[in-house]
Amino acid sequence: MKANDRARLTTALRDHVAKIAADLRAKMRATGAARAAAEQLHKDERVAEDFDVWTDLLSRRAAVLWVLKSVYVRVLEDRGLLEPGRLLDPEAQQLFEKLAPNLGETAFLRWVYKDLANSRGGVPELFSPQPAEVALPSDELSRSLIGFWRHRDADTGAVWSFAEERFEGELMGDLYQELDPVVKDRFALCQTPDFVRAFILDRTLTPAIETFGADEVRLLDPACGSGHFLIDGLKRLVAATAEKHKHWSKEKVVAHALDRVVGIDLNDYACALARTRLIMTAAELAGVTKLADAARFHPHVYWADGLEQVEKEEQKPSLQFSLFEKVEERPRATLTRSDVRAALKKVFERKFHAVVANPPYILERDEARKEYHRELVGKNRRYVSATGKYSLGAPFTERCFQLAEKDGFVGLITSNNFMKREFGKALIEKVLAGLDLTLVADTSQAYIPFHGTPTILLFGRMRKPEATGVRAVMGKRGESGRPQDPSKGRVWTSIAEGWSQAGFENEYVSVSELLRETLAKHPWSLGGGGAAELKTKLEGTAKERLGAIAAHVGPTAICGEDDVYVFDGRVPPPIRPYVIPLGMGDSVRDWNLGPLPSVIFPYESVGGPVLQSLPDPANDWLTRHKSRLRARAAFGVKQEDRGRKWFEFRDYYPDKLRTPLSIPFAEVSTHNHFALDRGGKVFNQTAPVIKLPVGTSEDELIALIGLLNSSTASFWMKQVFQNKGIRGEGGGLTVTLWEQFFQHDSTKMKLFPVVEARNKTIPYAAKLDALARQRSERNVRSVIDGAVWQSPAQLRRAIDERHAADFADLSRMIALQEELDWLCYSLYSLDEASDVISPENVEPCPPTWLPWNLTFAEKDAANREALANGQEPDEQPSVWWERHRWEALIALPDEASPALKNRVEARRARTATTPALALIETANFKRRWYKPDYAEQERVALSEWLADRVEQSAKARASAFSLEQLVANLQDDARVLAVCEVMTGRKDFSLSQLIASALQGDAVPSHRFHVYKPAGLVKREVWERTWADQRLEDAGEKVTPEVPPSYGSGDFLRSDYWRLRGKLDVPKERFISFTEVPGRSGVETLYGWAGWTAQQRVKAILAIDEELEDASAPLADRIGLLDSAWRLLPDVAREDAATATRLKAELQALVGPEGPSRELLEEWKKRFPPPTARAAKGRKAAVARKVDESEEDE
């Protein structure tokens, strides 16, 4: 099947899966047999998630299984294995309907699947009911699925056909990976491309056959997914077995080989796909043409947790009792069923001669599984590598070797994060160091489809180390663009062609024999082309490491739930007295610290003790999230069990805050970013800080920052810290090293080599620090707030003057940084020349005047010329200048001084002849100076100023207001009008449109039906149950409030609501939109101030309702508005119980003693749907409408 046809089929089936999942989800949540079965499964799987939330995943799994079974039927039909047909030809359905005329399409499909699950002539591996299938889809959806398979193209008359489909091909992989996005994310579904599989099998299964013999070899993939490795391995085993037993029949050869191929996966439908593909491939290899014959093939694919050590006899501890309560059993793995465990025990009686894997790279977040992985078995942990925040790739690497036969071959492609992250220390030094590693290949710079995470290939044998060296393929640089054929990408072909030749080197990789003792120590550094040697030289030049001179390196506070505590930008007025600045990683850039978010600070002072109780506004804010805050844990121990109050930070280090000076740095960034902080802030894990001993002067910190912010430091850090891969923040590819993000962790930061003569950096670093602070303080908003202006012309002039001054400061910083970089080359003995000039004499310049950039631009111009001439250039043209908004130069302009020109040319010449300088003087390690986007800075500052002014006007009102009322209030304000004119660049601007934009972009509807999608409403109900239980607990009742789930972007009706609220639905918006008010939509929508107390908000709603009642609006139309008020009563009671009682009585008179009924609300919901985007832009939406029953709820 062609690629575009595969994509079309996958997309179409994905749509069926989504609709069926929605239908099944509703059935699982409604009272009845489906819910009872789902609740039992929820209990059996020991899932920590709330049941209603978990059913979202369960319904998706069941929907995928239902649709995939229809795929299997079509496959069997098209391959001639199923006669008569079932789906394509309507005859079978017509016969079924004659026998059972009232059962419908779902019953027909169920009959087809059940018939084909028969152990006599059927294929139970494919069609047997799975535990997830606790509900069946509606007849309408089954009818649609059947119709899809029978639909003929209007032009060609063709139907979807699998007659020519190869089952080792891409289609089945696409179905596995893409049928449901939530399942894909949950199970980290990721295919292994064919060329990677071939490379791994060539170095595992093929030599295993040669070593142990074709009849003996057993192959295992403990994370098999849809079975790519299994199929490729089966074909190799069949070929080897056929060669040895030429007199055997094809069927006997295939059966013999298939019996020695084993796969395990945690995803039930991945296992189903793997079984299907293995049976179909076995049938093809054996030349089988009848289903009964194909059914004799029984693949060993097990739905289980590949990390569960079922081969070990695990004696459950006997139940012990204290005097008062039962002692809990140890945790067990959660998903592997007892029958599967029993089957796997038998399979694992013999180990495997070849073990291959592409394990999931995600962090393990399930607490029960983490406890299982870390459980003591004898004196050791079950998985030594399951330490800290470990990636699943680490224990899977261990598992592969555990299950390998003595001298067996192991090969896997896995995340390379263990090489440099702290959890990898145990894997490297306690596991891999004792095994016979034979090859490690850095694939982080190769383009491997589906793998945005940087990877490494690991090969070894299950025996003690033999040779003193380990073959290593070390990366030098990445692809210059996405290769059209990934198997022919320059990095991959360099690996494939060069790995076997020690001493091989080209532009992309270098190959050498690394001493085994080097790879027995953490971290690993696999930089090629002299990078590893230069790193060693830098470390040898320095007299000290940072850890030896620093008192502390790490965060000073970790909230644990940032969405609750942290405010990025505006802070709601009631909370403002209780916040302080919070240093976060993306605020540390180019010597500067800011602008900073704010954080609720539940302590007496910075470095002081925790408050004994919270002020009411802060308490009210945090109480909504009390259950989640209590559930925060460090090293598995929950907040209050650690002796902490529920409302304080998860981690807080007051001793590290007693001295004001510190050096925060960006934990995740493309380059090195350090700044000087002078106190009054806390810093979280995204911006760890370096603290020097008490009494250290500011100059000493400045000197250290000078080293840390240099290009030399950037080079060292990129050899040591974890590269986060080729996927950029926006989802695109970041193929070059300069645009890839690195994780600068505190542990390895302590290893930074510090030279003795660092004080020489002080003049440059001090000036850079001062200029950075000046640029930060002189921002556009400070001009708007501080300048004396009344007219648009005065404001425009003040802003323009600010821009000019800022650009002058930036140009000076660029020149100073360049001198600092070259000074550091000298300090680290990389450059013997001494042409660094004093800070006072630097010539301000853009980055395009710098030596490295001129050389870079010359090469890029040559590449562009080759491309224009129809030739294939050495590299694709770079996007560096476009990305940073500069114009490339290949020669210095006339305005550059002769002294600068001479110095630049001399440095270019030294770089060309000095390998160390040539490595560092590139975009990969030089600071990324962006040309400021002053227009965008203006837009943001002016928009925020206007939004603040609109909010001031709203804050002064005690009742709901319209857009028209706000416009009337602001239309005579000269400063408002001046800001609007400068912002739009027009005198004829529409004040109404600008204020509408400020309102609508920062407002969330009052009623939940207008905020959340159905899945979000389910989560909201869980949250409301938690709040109710918290109130009971506060009243002294013994209840345990449930920990409510996080929201996702797909739970909200609009992306704006997700942007404003986030994963914990924290109300950080400025305004409320009363979209539930009948007859008031579009420009007539009523708004309120989000800073109102619950009492003020209820009173405003009741005032609106009174107006509606006076206008004869029926109660049925007002029920949504009254429901909004009803749901606020518990919050009113926290403020004032007497007022809450009075307001409740007033509402009960309108909606009854228990509030609006579910039936009334459902009817209102149908008649008053959420406002459309079009209505939000000013057009009127329909007031109420009748709903066609065929319309879907979503």
UniProtKB/TrEMBL annotation:
Pfam families per UniProt: DUF7008, Eco57I
Gene Ontology annotations of biological process type: DNA modification; methylation
GO molecular function annotation: nucleic acid binding; site-specific DNA-methyltransferase (adenine-specific) activity
Region of interest: Disordered: 1166-1194
Enzyme class: transferase
Record key words, sorted: Methyltransferase, S-adenosyl-L-methionine, Transferase
EC number, as in UniProt: 2.1.1.72
Reaction(s) catalysed by this chain's protein: a 2'-deoxyadenosine in DNA + S-adenosyl-L-methionine = an N(6)-methyl-2'-deoxyadenosine in DNA + S-adenosyl-L-homocysteine + H(+)
Domain DUF7008: 813-1114
InterPro entries reported in the protein's UniProt record: DNA_methylase_N6_adenine_CS (IPR002052), DUF7008 (IPR054277), MethylTrfase_TaqI-like_dom (IPR011639), N4_N6_ade-DNA_methylase (IPR050953), SAM-dependent_MTases_sf (IPR029063)
Statement: the UniProt record of this protein carries the keyword Mitochondrion: no
Annotated NCBIfam families: BREX_2_MTaseX
Protein's recorded name: site-specific DNA-methyltransferase (adenine-specific)
Organism whose genome encodes this protein: Corallococcus interemptor
Species lineage: Bacteria, Pseudomonadati, Myxococcota, Myxococcia, Myxococcales
